[in-house]
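Researcher: Please translate sequence to structure tokens.
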Amino acid sequence: MVESGVRREAGRALVAEVLVVSHVSNHRLKRFTIWVAAPLTGLLLGAASLQAVPMAPNVLRVGVVDGSQPCSYREGGAWQGLAVRLWSQIAQRERIPYVLQPMPSIRAMLEATRKGGLDVAVECINLSPDRLRRYRFSLPFQEDGQALMVISNPFSLGQAFLSALFSGTLLRLLLVTLVLTLALTGSVWWVEEQPERRAMGWRQQLRGFSRVFAVMVTGSGDDAVVTTSRGRALVLLAYLVRLIVSAVLVGFLTVELVQEAQGRAGRRVQRLSDLAGLRVGLKPGTVSETLVHEINRSSGTDQAVIVPIARIDQALNALGREQIDVMLADELQLRYLIASNQSPNIIPVLAIQGIRPELQGFALSPSLPADLVRRIDLAISELKRSGVVQDLHRQALAGSEELNQDSRNGD
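Model: Translation complete:
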């Protein structure tokens, strides 16, 4: 304001001086002076008034990467995902203007943030030790590990069912059931003892015992062999045993079937060292790529072959077409793929889970003001405490299941 006042006074002094000269000069000089002084005075006053207008707030340049479901992806021309929605709530809460800028990869987005080309990188970015040394991050909003996904062939369930039928656990369960049934049959045979039974030969008695055993197993025809109240109580006990055994058998076969199918699919990959010699699909520029490079450095001559997957939602097709052997990504991303799988011929399973769990957050430019960073961190903390982040996490997976269901209904 002081500077603008000085400029106004300078303008007035200049006009006065020109007018004095015009007064003592001839008429032509007077007209010329007024013609020059008026625009000059307006220019000075206009410059002074511009200094008084406040600057508009800076608009943040926010980087996003497509194809990183369920954290960030583009659908129907709009950006979606857990991380994008979380940032949108933070910006709305803190009244931060921003513009989204698509980036080709997470690595490129991090470098642009470090060099000042971006102000914020919005993604589920792992805060690995190497990245913490090179980049600036916000307060973490979640934790996730990596996982390995493989697929089962359509015949795996049939093979798993046959394996479950001949498993030692099922045979022991059937043996226990047989012993209990024989014990109950013997009890009914002893309670329902008839006088004429003593005159029978051993073959006739064995035939009668078999008839009682059939009644205890099937539960039908008990009126022909049971006449006493104690015998009916034993038949009722046998009925309860059949119910319990049936429930146990169904539960056992279901669990055994799923575990055996998953075991067959993941039997080829049980440890990270098993990746040697396999084609590993992953998204370029992620911590998954760093992990495979570390495995290759320690595995010797047999190296894992990295196959770039541009979008996470392309992984199932790549596995189904045998373009890759396994898919390595964040566990949340792979669970999203399993929930959104629409192909009956592809059965994805997680062979290994919980690999290198790390915190995840946003990357920030080093030039971002400390006060703005503090506001962003406080907003993340409050949204975590209020359960918003957990709700976004749940909605991300639920959204994939709803999308899968809608697609099947449409078919």
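Researcher: Any highlights?
Model: The two ends are 70 Å apart (CA to CA).
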